[in-house]
Amino acid sequence: MYLLGALSLLAAVQAVVVPAIGPEGHTHSTLSADAAPQGKNVTINGVLTYVSLPRERFDPSIAVVMLTDVFGLPSPDNLLLADQWADAGFATFAPDYLNGDALPSDGLANITAWSVNHGEAQTTPPLLAVISSLKERGIKQIAVTGYCFGGLYTIRLVQNNTITVGTTAHPSSLSVPDDIDLIKAVSHVAIEINNAELDTGFTPALALVTDGVLGDGQYPPGYERRQFDGVGHGFAVRANASDPVQVAAKQGAFDTSLAFIKAHLK
Ligand SMILES: *[C@@H]1O[C@H](CO)[C@@H](O)[C@H](O)[C@H]1NC(C)=O
Ligand SMILES: *[C@@H]1O[C@H](CO)[C@@H](O)[C@H](O)[C@H]1NC(C)=O
Ligand SMILES: *[C@@H]1O[C@H](CO)[C@@H](O)[C@H](O)[C@H]1NC(C)=O
Ligand SMILES: *[C@@H]1O[C@H](CO)[C@@H](O)[C@H](O)[C@H]1NC(C)=O
């Protein structure tokens, strides 16, 4: 009887594929045009990669791989975010897994048309090329931090046990709860999620479904989720400098992911 009840309850939960959000749905940045990234573009295993190294001494056996949103390496916000990871003490690598075809952030792009050439088949090979090269170069532990579009790939790397720890903010394109169930079934990699109250993709309701699978100690490798109120999709990458709520949320997401990563590196 119990089993039947549980099965019919499960059947009632429809899997939702979190939609990709176009430029108009992202938090708008007020970054000044003269903001100067401190890192360099390097080709790693054939893939353009933005590399930002800490100014202080750092552990070369650890790397942060940052998976950008759809605006990729042409977006200064993404490069400065990679620099922030470097300033926190990690050699940081942001691969161009958009294959030189980032969406313009001017709000005129058609994300549906763009997505046709940016599925897993096109996106995964450059990503794995960089990760395998880092491992060949002696990097023993990789922390992945993925934003929006990068959320799905963070989840995949967690499911595939390719990395040491994963964090994501306002992830898109994953299937909830299916991809979360798969994490629980096959992964031993800890995962942290920052979500936005006003995100129309990975909504607070989907965040609660995720908690239902991984929360309350149900996922021994480690799970944490933090919701930021009053902000929307993209808040962990961009903020309006004159909006203190956005500024605090962006920093809060970074600090939460950083603490989680530090706690789960060996
Ligand atoms: C790195 O490459 C991207 C994409 O081509 C470009 O927009 C960016 O300005 C470059 N950054 C640096 C620091 O060279
Ligand atoms: C966006 O692209 C899709 C797929 O190519 C197309 O069906 C749709 O009409 C386009 N939307 C706009 C507003 O151009
Ligand atoms: C994860 O593993 C699946 C199944 O082998 C594979 O199809 C996919 O490309 C992998 N993705 C990543 C990001 O490693
Ligand atoms: C930033 O916020 C200010 C004050 O609310 C607003 O006037 C401005 O248009 C915003 N800028 C952007 C780029 O959204």
From TrEMBL:
Keywords: Signal. One of its GO terms (molecular function) is hydrolase activity. It comes from the Eukaryota. InterPro entries: AB_hydrolase_fold (IPR029058), Dienelactn_hydro (IPR002925). Residues 1-15 form the signal peptide. The keyword Nucleus does not apply. Residues 49-264 form the Dienelactone hydrolase domain. This is Alpha/beta-hydrolase. It comes from Roridomyces roridus. The lineage of its organism: Eukaryota, Fungi, Dikarya, Basidiomycota, Agaricomycotina.
